[in-house]
Design a protein that fits this description.
The strands form three sheets. Strands 3-5-6 form a three-stranded antiparallel beta sheet, with helices on one face. The protein is globular. It is built from seven helices and seven strands, in the order αβββαααββββααα.
Length: about 260
């Protein structure tokens, strides 16, 4: 499907060269057509029990987190720090336009992260290639040709549909948190969500606090996007994730089991 986020997809796949991600065989960029290696489209990470997905995801993130080099394909990958700098203006503007739909403290937490990790404010630069949509259904079983045995070097799994950015690897944690919420511990889903965030970060060798903070940024952006499109159910899920990660779950939201599922 032609859309802006698909533009750098073939560049990212070229950079990964089939290591941890689906191998790109050929691309017609003007037509948005990619010829990819065959994976098992019927077997995704969504088939595994929730806790068993952590190690698989973490291992893939480690493989996918390439350090920029001299290859020309890097030029097409958006820079996260530049986008974060833009969000310091657009997030508060959207929040005001929508009538301040959630508390200011949640917006400000997202803005602080954008300011600290944007082009102007950041003090460290550990940019890598980030698969920014690495959720359960975008991780498929990789089978060797004419065999049901997975490729050993890929751990049996490969990523698809990358929506790549160049920046903090921690930016990629959020999709694993806003999916499968209904499977969190019913006794304390908020605590389980925070535990999942830490476990995913640990499995991938990431900073758990930065993973939390980027996840808050992404869910605040998502909430504003959904509210702008009058999608209250999706917005409530995003606000539940963002505020629960900060141990201040917003009142008035549905319980975790009643949130819109992805």
């Amino acid at each position: 499907m032609p859309h802006e986020e698909a533009l750098p997809e073939p560049d990212a796949l070229e950079l990964w060269e089939g290591q941890g991600a689906v191998r790109l065989l050929r691309a017609d960029r003007s037509a948005y057509v990619l010829l990819l290696e065959r994976l098992d489209g019927d077997t995704s990470l969504a088939a595994l029990p929730l806790e068993e997905t952590t190690g698989v995801w973490g291992a893939l993130v480690r493989r996918l987190s390439l350090v920029p080099d001299e290859r020309a394909s890097w030029a097409a990958v958006p820079l996260l720090a530049t986008e974060a700098e833009t969000w310091t203006d657009t997030l508060p503007a959207d929040w005001e336009l929508l009538g301040r739909p959630f508390p200011r403290w949640l917006l400000e937490h997202a803005l602080i992260t954008c300011q600290q990790r944007g082009i102007v404010g950041r003090r460290t630069d550990a940019d890598v290639l980030v698969h920014s949509d690495l959720h359960y259904r975008n991780i498929l079983r990789a089978a060797a040709p004419h065999s049901h045995k997975p490729h050993e070097q890929d751990g049996g799994w490969k990523a698809i549909d990358p929506k790549p950015v160049r920046g903090d690897a921690e930016y990629g944690v959020a999709p694993m948190l806003w999916n499968r919420i209904s499977e969190l511990d019913a006794a304390d889903p908020e605590a389980h969500l925070r535990s999942r965030c830490r476990a995913l970060a640990d499995a991938a060798g990431l900073d758990p606090l930065l993973a939390r903070d980027w996840s808050v940024v992404r869910e605040v952006r998502n909430a504003l996007h959904y509210l702008g499109g009058d999608d209250q159910d999706q917005a409530e899920r995003s606000l539940w994730v963002a505020s629960s990660l900060l141990e201040r779950t917003l009142p008035g939201l549905p319980p975790a089991a009643g949130l819109a599922c992805l």
